Amino acid sequence: xxxxxxxxxxxxxxxxxxxxxxxxxxxxxxxxxxxxxxxxxxxxxxxxxxxxxxxxxxxxxxxxxxxxxxxxxxxxxxxxxxxxxxxxxxxxxxxxxxxxxxxxxxxxxxxxxxxxxxxxxxxxxxxxxxxxxxxxxxxxxxxxxxxxxxxxxxxxxxxxxxxxxxxxxxxxxxxxxxxxxxxxxxxxxxxxxxxxxxxxxxxxxxxxxxxxxxxxxxxxxxxxxxxxxxxxxxxxxxxxxxxxxxxxxxxxxxxxxxxxxxxxxxxxxxxxxxxxxxxxxxxxxxxxxxxxxxxxxxxxxxxxxxxxxxxxxxxxxxxxxxxxxxxxxxxxxxxxxxxxxxxxxxxxxxxxxxxxxxxxxxxxxxxxxxxxxxxxxxxxxxxxxxxxxxxxxxxxxxxxxxxxxxxxxxxxxxxxxxxxxxxxxxxxxxxxxx
Length: 434
Ligand SMILES: *Cc1c(COP(=O)(O)O)cnc(C)c1O
Fold this sequence. Notes:
Elements: H1 2-9, E1 16-21, E2 27-28, E3 43-47, H2 49-55, H3 58-62, E4 92-94, H4 97-102, E5 107-111, H5 122-135, E6 140-144, H6 148-160, E7 163-169, H7 174-181, E8 186-190, H8 194-207, E9 211-212, H9 218-223, H10 226-235, E10 243-247, H11 252-266, E11 276-282, H12 287-293, H13 319-329, E12 333-336, H14 338-352, H15 358-372, E13 382-386, H16 411-433
Parallel strand pairs: 5-13, 6-7, 6-9, 7-8, 10-11, 10-13, 11-12
Antiparallel strand pairs: 1-2, 1-3, 4-5
Helix pairs in contact: 5-6, 6-7, 10-11, 11-13, 12-13, 14-15
The structure holds pyridoxal-5'-phosphate.
């Protein structure tokens, strides 16, 4: 892996040119800048696409590393050696049993539950953000996190030898907290929700010269999510799907999958075609879904109350852009209850052998709802994005799954237990049938 990276980067030319405000178009230099000082809008990285077109081909990408860095010409970094911990190139699985259960013929699962190193899609954005942080001279990195981002930032900072201080809401799942502490960063557990954590971090960013991956480095960080679009297009045989379904927290990931597809079209790596974008939220934190349903083009912030903590952002920074993409592509934004989220987790596990966290349960439940409401055509190529791993949110399914059968180390004890469980199964079936 290291060697592949070295040969690739020795001929590398940076392709990113400036930061541009998403409202008003004011331009900024390639520094650590939070938002547009005039309109307070997010900033977007701009590239020289003529240069990218000359630098890359399907073959050059395929000859690159087996990680997100095969797409480095589309990422805002200039280092000889970006931080490559094997992030990306997760499986795109053709669904059989889930597809049949839902009545779909061409369903694919993009499985970032097995992303490296910390089992969520956040490893993509953090690999890019910390590479850029190092380039900009930061020695301490930080983030405001709903859990997975803290895991990624702490792990990849450890790998890169950067000091790390992360901020999380104090009431996160045990697996998310332990999965951060193990890398030995400073962890600030804030008595408040994510939006309060984020507000605090914006204040800290003004007083400390730290690289906050999702605040002053956000423009670079969010570009990492484009690789979720690039990989799917490459894994489908250099084709775009017809429909994607992805979870929405801040809305960033959703908008960047869209940007990724558009960039591949722009440089001629795939043929243009319409792709519908559908988004998933938990009902207990669904400001974007509510705006979609009510036909509004602004977001009214909400106070989160849901089991899906990783996507519980009440005041989503990229909400209006996600809304716009769903509308203009003919997609939908739906929300589901906590009960449906847990059923979604179980459905994916039982049909595909993939154990996802609450965000993935939300996405599967919304996929099911969209099919039932005839908003997904059974024949269209649909990609559902699974963004995190279920072992991190075990509390969510505790009490909703079976229990092991406790037996003596004796054959007859086993036989009796097996008979009992089969009788139970038959009884359950009879209950289903009556
Ligand atoms: C952060 C996160 C998301 C959503 O990310 P945004 O880009 O903020 O919309 C989705 N799934 C998981 C598991 C996450 O951790």
